[in-house]
Please model this.
Amino acid sequence: MKNVIALRQSLHTFPELAGRESETARRIAAFFRPLSPDAIVEHLGGHGLAVIFGGRGPGPAILLRCELDALPIHETNEVSYRSRSGGVSHKCGHDGHMAILAAVGAALAARRPARGRVILLFQPAEETGEGAAAVLRDPRFAELRPDFCFALHNLPGFPLGEVVLRAGTFACASRGMSIVLSGRTAHAAQPETGISPAGAMCRIISALAGMQAGGPDETAFITIAGARLGERAYGTAPGDATIWATLRAETDDTMHELVALSEETVREAAAEAGLTHTLHCEDVFPATVNAAEAIDIVRASASPLPVREAAQPFRWSEDFGRFAEVAPAALCGIGAGENVPDLHNPDYDFPDELIPLAADLLSRMIRRTCEAS
Model:
C-alpha cells in the first residue's frame, strides 16, 4: 500500500485541469506496466486510459471508473506533497480515486478473477462534464463491452469508510446557462433614446431564482451564478447584459422542463423590452441514476463497512451518469471523515487511510460479480 499512497501524493503534487491530464495519465500508465495487465488502452476520449485484467475463464466484464482531472483552486495546505501547479489542485479527491483503482489493480495482478474481465477506467475531464461523453464516443470503448459499470466518490462529513447508497437518482442533473440580452446604448442623460436590458435582466433573474419544476418533493432549482449589465461608464445607458445561471434537477425529464421554462421566460422578457437574446447551455451533466441490479451488488459487497441509505439524491452532479447508457451502472459514496474540509474547499485533502477501505470494497464487488457460480 505504500507505493499506492506514494502514487496518490505524487498525483496530488502535479495536478492537471480537465482536458490537460497528459502527465497524470503517463504516471498511471507507468504504475500499471510492471503489473502486466492484459492491455492498457491509452488516449481514450482524450487523455483517458483503460487498464484491463482478464480472468481465468469467460464471464461478465465489470468496469470501475475514476477521474483524472483537478480543479482551478489554489491549495492552502502546508503538506510535503502540496500542489506545485499554481492555482490548480486536487480538491475533489480524484487523486485518491485514482489511487484506489491503482490498489485494486495491484490486487488483480496478484490474483486474477476466476472469470470475466475487469476494466479500470481512468476518465478525463469529469469536472467539465465532457469526459464521459468523449470516452463513450471513442470507437475503442465499444470493444470493452462492460456488463456493469461502477464508481465511488469520497464524501466529507460522513464517517470514514461508511458506504452511502441510493437506488434511483444518486446525483442530480445540472447545466450552466448563459443568457445574453442585446439592446442599444444611449447617453445617460437621454436613456429613452436607447433600449436598456436592465429591466428585463432583473425580471429574468427574479423569475429564474424562484422557478419550480417537477414534483412537490423533487429537487429542482436554479442558482444565479452571476450577471453583468453594461460597463463602468457613467455617461452611457447600457445596451447589453449577461446572466449566468446553474440549473439543477433530480431527473433528466425535470431538467428538460426547467430548460423549457427558462427559455420561455427569457424569450417573453426580451420581446417585451424590445431586445434580442441568445441562450447557450454548457457544463451539461445528466442525472446519475443507479440501476437496481448494480446497486444491489454494491450493497451485498459492503460488509464489513457500515452502510447508510441516502433519503435524498445529492445535489452535486457527476458525469458518470452517462455510463448507464451502455450497461447497468451504480455510483456510491464512501465517507472521508466527519470533521474534515468539504469538497472543493482550498484546504481539503483526500485521506490516505481511506484507500485500502475503498479498494477492498471494490475488490469484493469484483469477486461477487466475476466469481459467482
Remarks:
- The longest strand covers residues 173-182.
- The domain at 173-284 is CATH 3.30.70.360 (Alpha-Beta Plaits).
- The chain has two domains: 2-171+287-370, 173-284.
- DSSP finds nine helices and 16 strands in the chain.
